[in-house]
Amino acid sequence: EEFSIFCVFYWLLSAFKVQKFAFAGSNRLIQLFMKPNYQYLLHIQFLGFRFRGWQHQPGQQTVEGMLKKTLKFVLSGMPVKILASGRTDAKVSAEALPVSLYLREALPMDEDAFTKEVNRNLPPDIRALPLREVDQEFNVLQDVIWKEYHYYFSNEPDFHPYAAPFIGYFHEPVDIGRMREAAPLFEGTHTFESFCSRPGGKASFERTVDISKIEVNTYQSAPNMPENTYAYIVRSNGFLRYQVRMMVGALVMLGKGELHETDIVDALRGEKELAITTVAPASGLVLQEVSYK
């Protein structure tokens, strides 16, 4: 019954277009309605190519839906609630997405055995990493210090379709050297209104980016990947929707000669509205790491 109350309340918040409040307040609502006695932090790896993102959606295949179904099977008869540190979009992957698992009772098996049992029942494109019990005051949403994303891409002409789930592909020639020099322009505290999908109502577009750089890809490898691939690495205390993909898109436009460095600088200062016509494909984006207090 308490789960039903929580779901109805969350649905009402979403229906009135206050999803941000509903999502940010989920940790408190779980404590209020479910009254969990135990909280565990686990990290989830997944290849997002066949999923409609993290968050559960009726009639859609999502990572949260698959994980929750598996947890309910492994913890049969126990009320289960999970909450992730954020939501990923369709086809976006993760090396380690933090997820809080809330239970009224302690795990019925040791943590290693639990992780093995979960992985035995998950599909091969989702994997649970070892979990640990955390204090009830830990907040998987609000205790984040920074998040780091990697965006993998290539523009080599001989692009094999098998590489599509792992990296973004840009057909036109681009000046990689110029893109690498311009990437640090995003570092610092700026207005990212031109580099995101703009939500309705009043919203703050100010974010602080600690790292923004392009490197030769030494992180990901797979059969049939192009010989030359690159990694755009960005770290921030928070991201707006589509922000990383649009930042990559702006760098690609610059690499094609469609933008100048001053266009990006002026947009970050809020002095100019920039039309980003290239949004990087979602399949190249990976949530690499989340750091907590």
Question: Which helices and strands, and how do they pair?
Answer:
Elements: H1 2-15, H2 19-24, H3 26-33, E1 38-46, H4 63-74, E2 81-84, E3 93-103, H5 111-121, E4 126-128, E5 132-134, E6 144-154, E7 168-169, H6 176-182, E8 188-191, E9 206-216, E10 230-236, H7 243-255, H8 261-268, E11 285-292
Parallel strand pairs: 3-11, 6-7
Antiparallel strand pairs: 1-3, 1-4, 1-5, 2-3, 6-10, 6-11, 8-9, 9-10
Helix pairs in contact: 1-3, 6-7
Large-scale geometry: globular
Category by helix and strand content? alpha+beta
Extended strand count: 11
Secondary-structure element order, N to C = HHHEHEEHEEEEHEEEHHE
Q: Biggest sheet, in brief?
A: 11 strands, mixed
Estimate the mean pLDDT confidence. Answer: 89
**How much beta, percentage-wise?**
15-25%
Tally of helical segments: 8
Describe the structure.
- Helix content is 27%, strand content 25%.
- The chain is built from eight helices and eleven strands.
- Helix 1 packs antiparallel against helix 3 (26-33) and helix 6 crosses helix 7 (243-255).
